[in-house]
Predict the structure of S1 motif domain-containing protein.
Amino acid sequence: MIRIGEKQELTVVRQKDFGVFLAESEGAEESVLLPIKQVPEGTGIGSRILVFLYKDSKDRLIATTNEPKILLGETKTLQVTDVTKIGAFVDMGLEKEVLLPFHEQNHPVRKGEEVLVALYVDKSGRLAATMKVYPYLSAESPYKKEDRVECTVYEINDRIGVFAAVDDKYFGMIPKSEVYREFRLGERIVARVMRVREDGKLDLSTREKAYLQMNQDADMVLKVIDEFAGVLPFNDKARPETIQRTFGLSKNAFKRAVGLLLKEGAIEITENSIRRTFEKKGESKA
C-alpha cells in the first residue's frame, strides 16, 4: 500500500518522458509519479527507489527523492513561510509547503517564526501540520534524573504547569510548584530533569537544586532590595503572592535566600521590612 507522508522503497513499473511511475511491485494497481527531474541516473524498469509521498499543488499524489524535514507522526521545529486567510504555511523541505490551519495553532504565528509542529493527514487526505503536539510525543527518552535537556514550550496550564517537548519529541512538564516565572508558547528553554516518572514522562525544572540555587536567589534578592533604595517594604512573612510577584520565587526559596543573607550579615529584618546593612561577603565596596 502506498502511504502518504512516509518514506517508502518502491519499484519502477513504467517510464515516460516526464518521469517514472512507482508501485509496490510489478502488476500492482496503485502507482505514483516520480517527476523526471527527481529520477536518479541509470533508473530503469524494476529499479527500486526510496521516495517520500505527498500531494502536489494540484492535489495529486506524487513522489520525491528530496529529503523532507518531517515525516508523518513526527514532531519537528519548522519555519513559518507565510500566513494567509486559510492558515499559515510551514517549510517541510519540499517544493510544496504544508498548511498549518488556524485551528491547529496554539497561538497566532507570524512569518519567519520557528514553530514546533507534528505532521498528520487531514480529513481530505492531505498532509497538514498541528501545534497540538501532545499526542505525538514519546515517553521513551534516554534521559535520567539531573540531566540537562533542551525543550520547547507548547502548552501552559495554570492549574498543572508548563508542558515542554524535550528535544522536540519527548514528554516533559514543569510542575506548577516549579513555575517561578512567566513562560511563553514556543519558548526554547534549558531545564533539569527532576524525575523520570513510571510512565517515562519527565518532570522538569528550570532551577538548580535548592542548595545550589540559594546563592543565585540571594544575589537576586539583594539586587531587588537595592532597587527599593535598600529597604524592602515587607519582610519574610509576606504573602506568597507578594513574594512571587516581586522576586519570581516560592516562599520557601525566598526564605532560604533571606536566611543566607542574614547569616552573612548583608540584611536585617524589621517588623515591616528587610533592610540592606552592608556589602555581602565577597562584594566590592567600589
Remarks:
- The longest strand covers residues 7-16.
- Helices lie at 210-227, 240-247, 251-263.
- The domain at 211-276 is CATH 1.10.10.10 (Arc Repressor Mutant, subunit A).
- The chain is about 15% helix and 35% strand.
